[in-house]
Structure prediction request, 493 residues.
Amino acid sequence: MTPLKILFLTAELAPFAKTGGLADVSAALPRFLTAQGHDARIVLPLYGRIAARHPEIVFTPVPELQDIKFTHGPHRVSFSVKTTPIPGSDTPAYFVDCPALFPRDGIYTQDPDEHLRFLVLTRAALEMCQRWAWAPDVFHLNDWHTAMLPLYLRTVYAWDRLFAHSKTLLTIHNLGHQGVFGAGILPELGLPDTALLHQDDLRDGRIGFLKTGLLLADRLSTVSPTYAKEIQTQGYGFGLDDVLRRRAGDLVGILNGVDYDVWDPRTDTLLAAKYSEKSLHRKEKNKEALLDALGLPYVKGVPVFGIVTRLSHQKGIDLLYDPLPRILSDHDARFVALGSGADEYATFLTGLAKRFPGKARYFAGFSEKLAHLIEAGSDFFLMPSRYEPCGLNQMYSLKYGTAPIVRSTGGLADTVQPFRASTGEGNGFVFEHYTGDGLHWAMTQALTTYATPKAWRTLQKNAMSADFSWEVQGPRYVALYDAMRPVAAGRPA
Ligand code: ADP
Ligand code: GLC
Prediction:
């Protein structure tokens, strides 16, 4: 196959700028592509907080991409591009340095120019291609932040034959975030006309970035096969199910991969003790270290429930409200939580730790090290999500021999199969309906299995043998990109 040229546009990239799984995928998929000999390049904002949090990182200016200026609506935009190696990856990452827009406290903001921040990122990517005289085969766009690129390709950049054969793939990582702005931002889109915008929305006073992309991108994907089906239904479509049904023929679900260079208990340097399926007794040392770090007493044989999550509506934290205190009252068990986000959920977790001292702890914040230790030191990992496009943590859990307890939705349904002691099949605990009783049932099943050493050992073995690596998932993207190329470019006619 002729090597592919892929420009990967993203708002997050691990380890530089991360709030969730998008950052992990943005690092791992392009890395896979580069390792396969493709020309993959990543574009993201140079957020102020990257340097603030990692003063040790040295950014090098990219000589041909300095002081680029373009007119965008009423604005004269000026940006430069810097680069720095991504640890463990050969993919070049291009950080768009635009001091007027990106140095803010967060990756995402509630600032009145939030739309502009990501429009400029999108346009900067196109301007960079022009400077390089390099046209990607596929612009791979991710979520609402860069979903407007197909609109710009068809309007502001339509004159440029450089892009005549470039295609666009828009990946939905989370339909719950759509980048919907008031129609008052229209002049700030810098468009020659509004013909390609959704006219009803415009009349209703809205412009939706994700919706625009879903209508105009050549192809659409999302991050698991089940979520690809779910989003075409009213229950999961967040108002875009009709658009997605219309484009069903162009929509595919490709499960995310896991970066086992980062998430493998045999090599994980953030653990108290490395272990494999053959040395599972060493997993116990991580449990001890985890509980010790959080000030909870370790008792051999007492099981630990863990959770690492953004505290958002999506993640189903409210489903824990009833069953978790019941489980902690009725059983000798521990519960450890790591996460930040909405106050409501943080208040519940703080209250739980107060109510069950010695049994429950909540660490508020973001900690890579603790996230790894929870994966390794817990026996069960809770993901009671309302919806879950893919979910990475349940796949990490499987590798760490930690049984996921999940609701059957999205990528969770595609990766976790209910364990049945009678057949010895399955790798976790799955409940169907979004109810506290459903979750309570699954947690009880988990405790019962844990108390039966032979069954527990079988489950752990099943879990640890699963392979969700990018070596398995990456080729699906390669096939998709390749299928998008004009015949003559990719394959012999
Ligand atoms: P989402 O992207 O919806 O948040 P995923 O399961 O795909 O869900 O990915 C979440 C990623 O973010 C995982 O790598 C997880 O370990 C990480 N993560 C989430 N919250 C925290 C936190 N508070 N501290 C450290 N890592 C976190
Ligand atoms: C989103 C989804 C999550 C998915 C991640 C990476 O944040 O919530 O399920 O794994 O993106 O695709």
